[in-house]
């Protein structure tokens, strides 16, 4: 219930902070350091006022090698447990593997963020038994191949139709739309043109009557127009976050929580003059 409650209470969009649990953060190859480093990231984000933390073992990154279930579970689950023990923040797990979803749900995570939109066998059934919030993301192809030659005749409508079908599958399993958000999947089997076309027309996704999540933080679409490396893409990413919010996104997935929260506060102050009748 946590995410729905947050969505109902908050003026503007929720900010989801990305917590990467990757082998490079294992400074001695051990588990202790990866948990400690993740906890430090989370502590900082919580202090800044993040709404959700998204814990991922990076199996979904474009071009990335597949990570085995056990390795991903060993990275992600101890971090989820440590966050649970220390913070009151909503926790999302970024995975497409149903077995890991099930394990994470046993630890009472609040949300499952699936770049494969619950298409793996049993994923829908596992989520149907819970009250966890779900992100259904669109991807063309697989993380290994998706950027080689993405093709659409009508990107926006094809992505909307795909997400609509995934919503129907969820609904038939008893998962209501108020437990689901949809995500066009910036950078997941899309050219630069597709990505900016989607951002410009992000409001069209609201026709499905479910909340929209946007994740474009530090992505290639930002680097391509700013000419900057990932760590230098903060200003561009914040601009993207504000544009997405103005087009109705209700959850924004970001690396740079501090900068994004400030920018969204400015947007909210602007928009609230419309409704306060002053
Ligand atoms: C390297 C390249 C590492 C890209 C990680 C990534 C999304 C997501 C990711 C998104 C949702 C990133 C991506 N992106 N989940 N997981 N939406 N719902 O930039 O756009 O974090 S992984």
Automatic annotation (TrEMBL):
Enzyme class: transferase
Cofactor(s) this protein cannot do without: Mg(2+)
UniProt keyword Repressor, yes or no: no
Domain Pterin-binding: 13-265
Pathway participation: Cofactor biosynthesis; tetrahydrofolate biosynthesis; 7,8-dihydrofolate from 2-amino-4-hydroxy-6-hydroxymethyl-7,8-dihydropteridine diphosphate and 4-aminobenzoate: step 1/2
EC numbers: 2.5.1.15
UniProt record, GO biological process: folic acid biosynthetic process; tetrahydrofolate biosynthetic process
PROSITE patterns: DHPS_1 (PS00792), DHPS_2 (PS00793), PTERIN_BINDING (PS50972)
Catalysed conversion reaction: (7,8-dihydropterin-6-yl)methyl diphosphate + 4-aminobenzoate = 7,8-dihydropteroate + diphosphate
Record key words, sorted: Folate biosynthesis, Magnesium, Metal-binding, Transferase
InterPro entries: DHP_synth-like (IPR045031), DHP_synth_dom (IPR006390), Dihydropteroate_synth-like_sf (IPR011005), Pterin-binding_dom (IPR000489)
Top-level division of the source organism's lineage: Bacteria
Gene3D superfamilies attached to this UniProt entry: Dihydropteroate synthase-like
Entry GO MF terms: dihydropteroate synthase activity; metal ion binding
A single cellular component GO annotation: cytosol
Function: Catalyzes the condensation of para-aminobenzoate (pABA) with 6-hydroxymethyl-7,8-dihydropterin diphosphate (DHPt-PP) to form 7,8-dihydropteroate (H2Pte), the immediate precursor of folate derivatives.
Family statement drawn from the similarity comment of this UniProt entry: Belongs to the DHPS family.
Protein name: Dihydropteroate synthase
Organism: Catenovulum maritimum
């Amino acid at each position: 219930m946590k995410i729905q409650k947050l969505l109902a209470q908050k003026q503007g969009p929720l900010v989801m902070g990305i917590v990467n649990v990757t082998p490079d953060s294992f400074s001695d190859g051990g588990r202790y350091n990866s948990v400690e480093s993740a906890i430090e990231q989370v502590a900082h984000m919580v202090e800044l006022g993040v709404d959700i933390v998204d814990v991922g073992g990076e199996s979904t990154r474009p071009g990335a090698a597949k990570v085995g279930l056990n390795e991903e579970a060993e990275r992600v689950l101890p971090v989820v447990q440590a966050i649970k023990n220390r913070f009151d923040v909503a926790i999302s797990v970024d995975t497409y593997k149903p077995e890991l979803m099930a394990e994470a749900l046993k630890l009472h995570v609040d949300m499952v963020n699936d770049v494969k939109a619950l298409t793996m066998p049993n994923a829908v059934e596992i989520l149907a038994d819970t009250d966890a919030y779900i992100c259904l993301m669109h991807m063309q192809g697989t993380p290994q191949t998706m950027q080689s030659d993405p093709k659409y005749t009508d990107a926006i409508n094809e992505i909307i139709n795909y997400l609509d079908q995934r919503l129907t599958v969820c609904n038939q399993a008893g998962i209501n739309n108020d437990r689901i958000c949809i995500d066009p999947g910036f950078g997941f089997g899309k050219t630069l043109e597709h990505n900016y076309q989607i951002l410009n027309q992000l409001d069209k996704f609201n026709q499905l009557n479910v909340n929209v999540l946007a994740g474009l933080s530090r992505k290639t679409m930002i680097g391509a127009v700013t000419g900057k490396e990932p760590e230098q893409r903060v200003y561009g990413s914040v601009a993207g976050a504000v544009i997405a919010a103005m087009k109705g996104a209700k959850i924004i997935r970001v690396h740079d929580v501090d900068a994004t929260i400030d920018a969204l506060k400015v947007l909210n102050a602007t928009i609230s003059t419309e409704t306060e009748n002053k």
